[in-house]
# Entry
Amino acid sequence: MNAAAPSSSRTFPDGFRWGVATSSYQVEGAWDEDGKGPSIWDTYAHTPGNVKNDDNADVANDHYHRYVEDVALMKDLNANAYRFSVAWPRIFPEGGGKPNRPGLDFYDRLVDELLGAGIEPFATLYHWDLPQALQDRYGGWQRKETAQAFADYAGYVAEQLGDRVKHYFTINEFASFVEGGYQGLDVQVGGGRTVHLGAAPGLRLSDADLKQVRHHAVLGHGLAVQAIRARGPAGTKVGFAENIRVGVPVLDTPEHVKAAETATRDRNAGFMTVLLEGRYTEEYLASAGGRTPTFTDEELQVIASPLDFVGINVYKPGWYLEPSDEPPGYRDIPVNASHPKMGASWHVLDPEVMYWAPRHMRSIWGAESIFITENGSAASDAVADDGRVYDSDRVMFLRACLAQLQRATAEGVPVHGYFHWSAQDNFEWGDGYGTRFGLVHVDFDTLERTPKLSAEWFRAAARANRVV
# Structure
């Protein structure tokens, strides 16, 4: 055997994007500068008790003022793509109406800086920072008017940036902002206690009302796809970025794989399944006593507007599955109490999810172009006496996950890029600044940036286009 064969077998396809990702609220800061209106996360984080240590993102990483430095850091990582989000209330402080030109100017400068560094911009249009004005006016995504306002905003951004930004993700993680913001989650913690985890806008709707919010969110996506195609230049590409709930088969046998695929389709019914199939499953419609959502056939056609790619955020398995002779044809296998976890308490470790998630996207829905829009891990990052950050656990995580992703591409699964979450430590929603996901360490007192050991791994892997 040729001595080079083991290395070449770990190589990704030509043209593979090695990217990093952030979101506007988590890194930009400048929360009320240059005409920006308040977002629901500004309001939520300014309310005592909602965020750990009462942290907020008024300054965050100050990326709004330090984007030149941050782009230089990305270039040093050999990243050739950057997924960022546009802050809707920077563009339309009232959610619609007259655009705020200084807000758009920031993204003009950022895009130009990226292109000058040889980094391809990928824009996300909604990463949860809804203009507060729309929450006040319509109850946010509780009303269809917000979906239409989102489409108007999306079309405007594609029109203004489309000469340089060719890829748009409409909405990031439908399930996260809908379930977290409009109902919240009850999670068991140590000592048998249950805590309620919420997110902006911090509502607790009924199951039936929540289904209607889900529908308005996917409708907003479909309307935005149509607006981007209508107003963006020819060749503009559009998709979504969803945190797929992945069923992992206990055994890699046809029966177990079929059980995992069936569960994955069923348990993504409120978002992924309707987005890609244009219909709600009968089981989903029967849930919550059969009440809601109210929709039309025309809306379902809009929701399923053809896409150029799909983005999936992949962190952990949703469930382990085995086949069952009883409906629905699969059975959950509980995750053992001693199962290894990463730095965040919710982050069950299984690198194979990076194989099964894109494989399911192809086998269930026939996806022809897939991006891993988020993958990463929290770690107990600290600056050592010699000034370095030795996040060996994140290096282990990256090597293991990327090996499984490479396995998928070697089998012909059409994954065209990987975006690591995140480019640098940032405001981590309800956890504030205590949970770090970045390849670059940020001292939130001085805002000094320090690339970690994982940044060295990413730099080498991106340069070689393979697992190193």
Notes: Confidence is low (pLDDT under 50) at residues 1-7. The chain is about 40% helix and 15% strand.
